[in-house]
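Please, structure for the following, as tokens.
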Amino acid sequence: MNRIINIIVVVIIVAIVIAIGVGTSIYAKNNIPSAKSDIDFNIDMSKWKYDKENNVFYQIGVKYCENSSKSENETMSIYVPGEYFKDTKNDDETYTCVLNESGEKSGHKASETPVIIPIDTNINISQKPHKEYNYSSISAYMDLGYICIWAGTQGMDTDKTNYSIEEYNSAVIDAITDLKAVVTYYRFNGDVLPGDTEKIISFGINEGGTKSAVFGASGDSDLYYSRLVSIGAVTENKEGKSISNSVNGTMCYGPVMNMELEDSSLAWNVGQYIDKTDDEEPSETENRATEFAEYINDMKLKSEDGTLLYLNETKDGIYTKGTFYNYILNDVEKALNDFLHNTKFPYTNKNSITYGSALDYINFLNKDGEWITYDENINNAKIKSLKDFALNCKNTTKEGFNLTSSNAYNPLYYLSSKYKGYGSSYISRYWNICIEVDNNHKDFSSEEILKIVLEKNEDVRKIKYNILWGKEYSNEEKTKMAVQELKLWIESCGITSNDKIKWLQRIYKEQK
């Protein structure tokens, strides 16, 4: 009898997959652009330009949504290694291209190479589209044999500080909407464009890392549907089946995870030590630190080994004991020890200070009082407390951002069972998160929570989490490092095509 039931369930699931098309979301709606649309979503393959010196084909200013005229930012540029096309030169210095099925670059075949979408902009600021060709801006991706999509997106024009919460909400959510529209446009043209359209990877740098996290968590979420319709995004393929707007790989390099808890996490991890007052009544910082502790205890987070992570109320400090506290402290120590083990001494930092040995570096950190104990024989350091770490490495509490109150922009809404949105999206299967733990303007607790939640999510196949210590690079240096890290990560985790069968099975069971 059980066997018969199992067979029936499998048949039903297969029927669902056939009905909606494998690789699409059961939450996606039907949205064919209207007959009056002035945009043809079929990319014009006769309009490619060619950089002969570097062997790159490209199109700039491609409209990816019907109503792009409402925002001059809503165009994309596509960059393709020359090996992936067979071309015919036109009379106007453009080229007509078709796929070169046998083309290879850096070990990647034309039909199998990943498609990378870089995001490098402040959280609420628009990402400007490329107006002209500049090989240096995309050379790293071309050298690796990837397809690169640079997406212009909506958002605020300037990083002003007096914006309203409504302006902020709209700016950040519109940007994610545009990125989703870029994905569906590229998949719509997947029969003529190179790259595996089920290996689309969002690659966020700095504050763009936050957008990348939301992008990766919110695939095919209903919360974005009305906005996709409003900009005239293509949501059905040429066979009339829904197109998924999800990505399968998500990289967040140096993110600023300004989610709902950012101000309170900053207050708990940093502010309560630096903003200490002698007032009898709790300060605003202390109240926010308490809010964060209550949030952590309500989340019922668990580490990889199943340990419940919680915070205990204490007399000395706001909730400065418990397994979550120990978890954070251990990760900070790991970052420091990784730095000591992987750094070749003598080492010169960005301020041109040279340290002859690891011991010299530790002695420098302890110059105002010992807060790190160091065993030179095994090259291992231990940090006394998070308070000591904050007082020595965090010289400002930097006022938090005006945070969006929308669930649409909170990756945890989709990833954690604490929220109603859990299971309502197709989340990225592969994640790479890299943070700068000793950056004195940033907190990292929210990134830690993101990692913990991802580790326990049954749909995530692989997570790479790096905590950098002492590596305050310029944006240019960080971008170069991040691209190299992107390459190593893609190779190590073997990102595969989207597989929604397991997700559909779970959704079906929940519906029953």
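Residues 165-188 form the longest helix (24 residues). The chain has two domains: 49-258+416-435+453-463+481-511, 262-393.
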